[in-house]
Automatic annotation (TrEMBL), chain A:
The gene is fdxH. NCBIfam families: FDH-beta. InterPro entries: 4Fe4S_Fe-S-bd (IPR017896), 4Fe4S_Fe_S_CS (IPR017900), FDH_Electron_Transfer_Unit (IPR051555), Formate_DH_bsu_Proteobacteria (IPR006470), Formate_DH_C_sf (IPR038384), Formate_DH_Fe-S_su (IPR014603), Formate_DH_TM (IPR015246). Residues 1-21 are annotated as: Disordered. The keyword Cell membrane applies. Pfam families: Fer4_11, Fer4_4, Form-deh_trans. Residues 28-58, 91-123, 124-153 form the 4Fe-4S ferredoxin-type domain. Its main location: membrane. Keywords: 4Fe-4S, Cell membrane, Electron transport, Iron, Iron-sulfur, Membrane, Metal-binding, Repeat, Transmembrane, Transport. This is Formate dehydrogenase subunit beta. Residues 1-18 have a biased composition (Polar residues).
Automatic annotation (TrEMBL), chain B:
InterPro entries: Cyt_b561_bac/Ni-Hgenase, Di-haem_cyt_TM, FDH_cytochrome_b556_subunit, Formate_DH_gsu. Its cofactor is heme. It comes from Azospirillum oleiclasticum. PANTHER family: FORMATE DEHYDROGENASE, NITRATE-INDUCIBLE, CYTOCHROME B556 FDN SUBUNIT, FORMATE DEHYDROGENASE, NITRATE-INDUCIBLE, CYTOCHROME B556(FDN) SUBUNIT. The chain crosses the membrane at residues 25-49, 61-82, 121-143, 163-189. This is Formate dehydrogenase subunit gamma. The keyword Phosphoprotein does not apply. Belongs to the formate dehydrogenase gamma subunit family.
Length: 300, 228
């Protein structure tokens, strides 16, 4: 969708310029408490309903995940993992609501070559502005969480908007609204961290001494956070990255290479021009022509 | 024609056939279009160049197809010219005296065949970079991933895709730098452009810049004695 919140842009893809700074909105966050999640998928349904998306009927892959992956029409997805806890011998059923993490340092935005196709609002939400998307898929390469999906129909990238349209008018995201156990809560980032810490303290008192809030510093923190009972090993939650950060390859490509490369090209062109100015053209002299004619022997 | 008439009409030497010229200009056109469309998606300040191709989406769509044209077209140039671009001992001498080259003091340089060391470096540099650009380009040609997967069974992992975009950008910068050298040399050394436009150069040009080549050409044209 188009962005109707142009006053609140904090970052804009492929744009070098100052973002509007006249006002600042409250930094928001969604907190996903996996220890409270019952895997009912109401959040998935609410997401489809609010955003008016319908996933095609797929195939059963033998697990509870349905559909089995994020897609242009599935912006959030419950991922189920059966994990043998080696310390207790218990089988734990881990359920994680997957979707865009709304990074403070968004790899998708950094990689995007189309001006304004990806924006970050000052409230922290990272949004795709489809009308500017050119379908290159660079956001997929930039993302450390494997979130954006490119549509086969229109080649545009899709992902969770954190219901930027709802948040803009003071509503919580649809998934949060639908969650029956308050495993999903939404509010200011500050409040969500504080609430998360309370939850962590509670979990620790129940024996989960490795419980913690997942707000990875490698991407500057996120605006979707998790409360994990095993925060020391995020990957057991269906491959949640341990220490996500934008790939150094992407950083190099969109950092040094982009600027030094262009500078180098400009410098080479200027050098050529100056060489001409200093040395003048390299001309063939009459003597050269004479010598050539002589060599050709006048008789050919 | 005699030597004394060079002023009116210098002797000419044929340098490129019509086919070679067409081949060259197809390559040149595709390389320039690739540079423009690639730079458009490389740096935000150059995104306006997508306007030349009908917008961002069309630029994204058309760029790799032009790349395939370049690959095929350059392969033609490669087959035509690779032998003449093989490195020789004298090329090291030429390269060692690059100051004399830049100052235009060609009398200090060894006699050069059809291509000098600089031209050979342009040739091999482009040859290598175009292969690198092709391979890395396929790695980021997202709309062809299904084709790669279904026909060749190739799935490109995300880290290889990331490596591919970086390598593609670096190789493209290298190719553009080489292109600048190539074009500048052609403009600086007067009488060069006509080699690719009309296929011939003046004898004086050949004498000054590619004397050994001129000797070979003249030698080849001298009637041989009947084989008896």
């Amino acid at each position: 969708m188009a962005t109707l919140q142009s006053l609140d842009l904090q970052r804009r893809s492929a744009t070098s310029g100052t973002p509007p700074a006249a006002r600042k909105t409250l930094e928001v966050a969604k907190l996903i408490d996996v220890s409270k999640c019952i895997g009912c998928k109401a959040c998935q349904v609410a997401c489809m309903e609010w955003n008016d998306l319908r996933e095609e009927v797929g195939e059963v892959t033998g697990v509870y995940d349905n559909p089995h992956d994020l897609s242009p029409a599935t912006w959030t997805l419950m991922r189920f993992t059966e994990w043998d806890n080696p310390d207790t011998g218990n089988l734990e059923w881990l359920i994680r609501k997957d979707g865009c993490m709304h990074c403070s340092d968004p790899g998708c935005l950094k990689a995007c070559p189309a001006p304004g196709a990806i924006v970050q609002y000052s409230n922290g939400i990272v949004d795709f502005v489809s009308e500017n998307c050119i379908g290159c898929g660079y956001c997929v390469k930039g993302c450390p969480f494997n979130i954006p999906r490119i549509s086969k129909a229109d080649n545009k990238a899709y992902k969770c908007t954190l219901c930027s349209d709802r948040v803009a008018v003071g509503q919580a995201p649809a998934c949060v609204k639908a969650c029956p156990t308050q495993a999903l809560v939404f509010g200011s980032k500050e409040d969500m961290i504080a609430h998360g810490e309370e939850r962590v303290a509670d979990l620790k008192s129940r024996g989960y001494d490795k419980a913690g809030v997942y707000d990875p510093a490698g991407v500057g923190g996120t605006h979707v956070m998790y409360v994990l009972h095993h925060a020391d090993k995020p990957p057991i939650y269906a491959g949640l990255p341990l220490a996500p950060k934008i790939s150094p390859l992407v950083e190099m490509w969109k950092g040094l290479t982009k600027n030094v490369g262009l500078l180098g090209i400009g410098f080479a062109a200027v050098f050529g021009f100056m060489h001409y100015v200093v040395n003048g053209p390299n001309r063939v002299s009459d003597e050269d022509e004479q010598a050539a004619a002589k060599l050709k022997g006048d008789g050919t | 024609m005699t030597g004394s008439h060079y002023r009116d009409e210098p002797t000419t030497v044929s340098r490129y056939s019509a086919a070679a010229r067409v081949n060259h200009w197809v390559t040149a056109a595709s390389l320039i279009l690739l540079a423009l469309s690639g730079l458009a998606l490389f740096h935000p300040s150059l995104f306006f160049l997508t306007g030349l191709f009908g917008g961002g989406e069309y630029t994204r769509i058309i760029h790799p197809w032009i790349g395939l044209v370049l690959l095929v077209s350059f392969a033609g140039l490669f087959l035509r010219f690779w032998r003449l671009n093989l490195w020789e001992r004298t090329d090291n001498v030429w390269l060692g005296r690059v100051r004399a080259v830049l100052a235009g003091r060609e009398e200090e340089l060894p006699e050069v065949g059809k291509y000098n060391a600089g031209q050979k470096l342009v040739f091999w540099g482009m040859s290598i970079l175009i292969i690198v650009l092709f391979v890395s380009g396929v790695g980021i040609w997202r709309s062809q991933y299904p084709f790669l997967r279904e026909t060749l069974g190739i799935v490109i992992p995300i880290d290889q895709q990331r490596l591919a975009v970086l390598v593609h950008a670096l190789a493209a910068i290298g190719a553009i730098l080489i292109w600048i050298v190539h074009v500048y040399a052609a403009l600086w050394v007067k009488g060069t452009v006509r080699a690719m436009m009309r296929g011939s150069v003046t004898g004086g040009w050949a004498w000054r810049h590619h004397r050994r080549w001129l000797r070979e050409e003249v030698g080849a044209r001298t009637p041989r004695r009947p084989a008896e």
